[in-house]
Amino acid sequence: MILLRGCPLSIVILLVSAVGCTMVHRDAAAPSSAQAPAPPAASAASAPAKAPTAPATTGPAAAVATTSLAGESSRPALTEDSTADDYVAFAEAANPGLQAAHFRWQAARERAPQARSLDDPKLSYTAAISKDMRIHEVTVEQMFPWFGKLDLRAAVAEEEANAARQEYEAQRVRLAYQVKQAFYEYYYLSRSIEAVRGNRDLVKYLGDVALAKYRTAGASQPDVIRAQVEFGKLDDQLRTLEDSRGAAAARLNALLARPMDTPTPWPKAVPEEKFDVPDQEILAWLHESNPELKGLDHEIVRGKQAIALAEKDYYPDIGIGIGYMNNVERMEGSEDHMVVGMISVTLPIWREKYAAGVREAQLRHEAALKMRGDRENMLAADLKMAAFGLRDATRKIALYRDTLLPKARESLQSVEAAFRTGSANFVDLVDARRTLLEFQLMYERSLVDHAVRLAEIEMLVGRPLPRKGEVLPSK
Hints:
This protein has a single domain, classed as Up-down Bundle (Outer membrane efflux proteins (OEP)), CATH 1.20.1600.10. The protein is 64% helix and 11% strand. It has helices spanning 9-29, 61-73, 84-94, 96-109, 111-115, 149-215, 221-243, 245-255, 279-289, 291-311, 351-421, 426-461; strands at 122-129, 133-144, 270-274, 318-329, 334-345, 468-472. A 4-stranded antiparallel β-sheet has the order 1-2-4-5, covered by helices on one side. It has a two-stranded antiparallel sheet with strand order 3-6. α6 packs antiparallel against α8 and α9 (279-289) packs across α11 (351-421). The longest helix has 71 residues, at 351-421. The radius of gyration is 37 Å and the shape is elongated. The N and C termini lie far apart (100 Å).
């Protein structure tokens, strides 16, 4: 007391310094948002080119600046030689839906430093003034949650961030599947247009032949009419397919975050990649790597931590404070300085409230367990269907490529020769031509279905598949 007499400002400085130290310690414990990682890059096989070097950015805008650069400057050019993986890399660089998932993940990462930090200390000032006395009091108080509460809060927030990361990964593999599906369907449209156009031109030529024969009494009028009708049907089909190109390109451009009317070249080929893995092994990959299931695993762990955190509400929080009091008695002309220590506790008396909080956490945890089981069953069923579709497409590719298409071409050539010599009628020629067109389109459809099913399996298992393949020309 003697040391403090005559220097009351020293106590105020001490208290303010204590508050400053607490704040500095809290800020040092929380990582800066500038350290947040940029969006994970595309896979090595499809990674886009590096963005130009940008001026150094610090503070909360650093992660946003990095992401913006990736979206605007590092997208590879797309040409007619670009593969589906090139299109996926292009989309991953700037798709707004994927970026939104990334920012949600980064936002979730910032909750853990907040959760593990103490509340701000409380600084209060009290003055009591009377005729004979004047009292001034300054206090600083810091509340401390019950032992383990801060760690549990941080653990809950970290699991939420981990779940958000898996949501981002799920969005990324879903985007890759959507881009590949749109790319392969765009390829199928191009092959359909080419096949229908070729058959329309063939029918026109045969119709001209029938008309020439009719003029020389070598063919009947119904043959000429059938040729004209068939030509009209094929021409209408071709116009429909050609008109649908804009809609198909718009779908692909939307996934690529480009204007709808951006010119999109026709893909040249679709890879028929060899993949022969037992269903049980693929299912094991699903359980190990599917990002949706991994995210639900983090939700389950979060639920356990949330139950433990809710149980901590039964225990009080503890407050520790220090105060300075200045007491001046005017009548006696004396002045006293005092330092006061304080301890306070909250009173957790609303037991039903805390019990309800525990029950809520337990029910949410149980819901996460059930959701995980449901999604695992549904994803496994989807994987079985995709694997069946892949096997079916593989079988049909071999069937059409090695058997049906060669036979259909041979049949058409034979009927054409017979028609020119008059030993076959025009109906036989139309049937042979129609069969070849159907087989051509079914072969292309099987190629596309095979590639789409592979992309779907990759999306479901959440990782690239171990396979080898070759790009096969269209038949």
